[in-house]
């Protein structure tokens, strides 16, 4: 299966991080969602941690609003903050509520170090750099789930109990968001670095940020498997 097209910068970054990208998008946790063998306890533990993760990811996208230089950039980043705090986190709240975990327990859950490392790394990439640095660190999260969702929607076991999760990320709405985000990244890089951004002196550092965030995604799945 060929990977979905989320733009030029992403295609290059993904290629430049080939081994960790494979470890992230084909992780045992992902395969367990696909065939339904992931223990429920692992999934709920992941969802609680992911709720906290999304709180900090919303802060990172809010930082992208303040790092924007055009109204189009601001609109895209602000739309993502809205989607995160008002919609995506609802999947976590609803699923956890069904399992008897109330929302205030999600907001106050103790963060695992793997979670802390990832979110604060991304926030620091944004605080110490510009929008290009921040987007390089944010891209694996947004676009990786798009790629995982697409593959799992095609390959899933019909009776996996994780169908809602797969449909959230494999569905048309999320895939549109991934394409928009990929286009926004290409435009933001072209604006700051020039159209040949991959030949620029700062490209290796952007690649390194993307690769580090991908490695931190692998750590997040590992954490999910060890409740
Ligand atoms: C560990 C972890 N990595 C990625 C995502 C996916 N994700 C994070 S923010 C966001 C919306 C961006 O528009 C999406 C889809 C997640 N939930 N948890």
Automatic annotation (TrEMBL):
Source organism per UniProt: Meridianimarinicoccus marinus
Coiled coil stretches, renumbered: none
Catalyzed chemical reaction(s): 4-amino-5-aminomethyl-2-methylpyrimidine + H2O = 4-amino-5-hydroxymethyl-2-methylpyrimidine + NH4(+); thiamine + H2O = 5-(2-hydroxyethyl)-4-methylthiazole + 4-amino-5-hydroxymethyl-2-methylpyrimidine + H(+)
Function statement: Catalyzes an amino-pyrimidine hydrolysis reaction at the C5' of the pyrimidine moiety of thiamine compounds, a reaction that is part of a thiamine salvage pathway.
PANTHER family named among the record's database cross-references: BIFUNCTIONAL TH2 PROTEIN (PTHR43198), SI:CH1073-67J19.1-RELATED (PTHR43198:SF2)
Pfam family, one: TENA_THI-4
Gene Ontology terms for molecular function: thiaminase activity
Broad EC category: hydrolase
Protein name: Aminopyrimidine aminohydrolase
InterPro entries documented for this protein: Haem_Oase-like_multi-hlx, Thiaminase-2/PQQC, Thiaminase_II, Thiamine_Salvage_TenA
CDD domains associated with the record: TenA_C_ScTHI20-like
Family indicated by similarity: Belongs to the TenA family.
UniProt keyword terms in alphabetical order: Hydrolase, Thiamine biosynthesis
Domain Thiaminase-2/PQQC: 20-225
């Amino acid at each position: 299966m060929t990977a979905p097209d989320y733009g030029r910068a992403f295609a290059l970054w993904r290629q430049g991080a080939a081994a960790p990208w494979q470890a992230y998008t084909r992780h045992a946790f992902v395969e367990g969602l696909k065939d339904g063998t992931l223990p429920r306890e692992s999934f709920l533990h992941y969802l609680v941690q992911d709720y906290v993760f999304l709180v900090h990811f919303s802060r990172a996208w809010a930082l992208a609003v303040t790092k924007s230089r055009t109204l189009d950039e601001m609109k895209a980043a602000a739309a993502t903050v809205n989607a995160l705090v008002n919609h995506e986190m609802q999947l976590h709240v609803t699923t956890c509520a069904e399992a008897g975990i109330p929302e205030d327990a999600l907001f106050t859950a103790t963060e695992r170090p793997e979670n802390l490392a990832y979110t604060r790394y991304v926030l620091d990439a944004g605080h110490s750099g510009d929008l290009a640095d921040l987007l390089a660190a944010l891209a694996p999260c947004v676009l990786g789930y798009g790629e995982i969702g697409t593959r799992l929607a095609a390959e899933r076991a019909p009776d996996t109990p994780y169908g809602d999760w797969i449909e959230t990320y494999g569905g048309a709405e999320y895939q549109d968001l991934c394409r928009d985000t990929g286009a926004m990244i290409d435009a933001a890089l072209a604006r700051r670095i020039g159209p040949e951004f991959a030949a620029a002196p700062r490209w290796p550092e952007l690649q390194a940020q993307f690769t580090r965030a991908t490695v931190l995604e692998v750590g997040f799945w590992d954490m999910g498997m060890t409740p």
